[in-house]
Write a structure and sequence with these properties.
Blueprint lengths: L1 E8 L2 E10 L4 E9 L1 H4 L7 E7 L7 H6 L3 H7 L2 E5 L38 H16 L3 E10 L2 H12 L6 E5 L9 H11 L11 H7 L6 E6 L5 H5 L1 H11 L3 E6 L6 H19 L1
Helix pairs in contact: 7-9
């Protein structure tokens, strides 16, 4: 673990670290907010953990500089861990003409098509390596009380990782998630590139398909702006809502009037999400 930066904020510490990932075969950066409760060694009380997954084109920096989450996380005593969105490095394959594929667009899956499969193993990284890194590096983190959330592509990642690992990621929420990637252009292009053209293999990374097979016991929260420019073509929360109703999956879907896809939207409702996870994680 190599420290990159450290800043005090609301009595806590916002840090960025770099560490080696075997899954992605590269160095990965991770942002960590430690609330003041986690820094008080005298109390020796582990804090719950919330994983934040960012969207297309983002790094670990977008959430920690734009969402305004630290104040409420400090009040609630939540550790927030925000990893990068894809593998990085000169040896990592990329595209020159696409923002929604390659670096910055890992889609939180394990690629099975060359050359992407050599580095793009973001599901394994988030599910296996990141919790191990948290346990080893953050002694005040209680990984038995861990939730997951995210935005857009990261909302897709949060939903799929929760539905497949409900005992690891006990709580789940999302902002403007891609809920049915097999049915929309963003997901279809990414899945064909990373997983191949056999669409039958895509279902394991599709939240709407997953909830039809394995709904969780958690109550999922989704916020979606009605003025989101990607709503009708790429996001389609209605598809996930129908599937949840059919399968008895607890879901609160809030359509927020006038909000778009930006971090202005996330900053407006991040407090609600943090309180949601804090209440459920205890």
């Amino acid at each position: 673990m190599t420290p990159i930066s450290e800043n005090k904020i609301y009595g806590g510490i916002q840090s960025v670290y770099e560490h080696r990932s075997d899954a992605c075969a590269c160095d990965m950066r991770v942002a960590v907010f430690m609330p003041p409760q986690a820094l008080d060694k005298a109390k020796d009380k582990p804090c719950p953990v919330l994983i934040w997954l960012s969207g297309l084109t983002c790094t670990e920096q977008n959430f920690i500089t734009k969402a305004g989450a630290q104040r409420m996380a400090a009040e609630l005593g939540i550790i927030i861990v925000a990893p990068d969105t894809s593998p990085r490095g000169d040896h990592v394959p990329d595209t020159e003409d696409r923002y929604d594929f390659g670096k910055g667009a890992g889609f939180y899956l394990d690629a099975t098509v060359m050359p992407w499969m050599e580095n793009y193993a973001m599901e394994t990284y988030i599910r296996d390596e990141l919790p191990f890194w948290i346990k080893a590096s953050l002694p005040m983190a209680d990984t038995r009380r861990m939730g997951i959330t995210g935005h857009s592509m990261g909302g897709h990642g949060a939903l799929t990782l929760h539905l497949k690992n409900p005992t690891l990621f006990k709580t789940c929420s999302a902002f403007s998630p891609i809920v049915a990637p097999s049915q929309v252009p963003w997901g279809q292009k990414a899945f064909e590139g990373y997983l191949g053209d056999n669409a039958s293999t895509w279902a394991r990374y599709d939240s709407t398909e997953l909830v039809m097979k394995q709904p969780s016991e958690a109550h999922i929260l989704i916020d979606q702006g009605t003025d989101d420019e990607f709503l009708k073509e790429h996001l389609r929360p209605d598809l996930f809502d129908v599937a949840c109703q059919k399968m008895g999956q607890s879901l609160t879907l809030r359509m927020q009037e006038g909000y778009d896809h930006s971090y202005y939207f996330i900053a407006s409702f991040i407090e609600d999400h943090l309180r949601w996870h804090a209440k459920e994680l205890g």
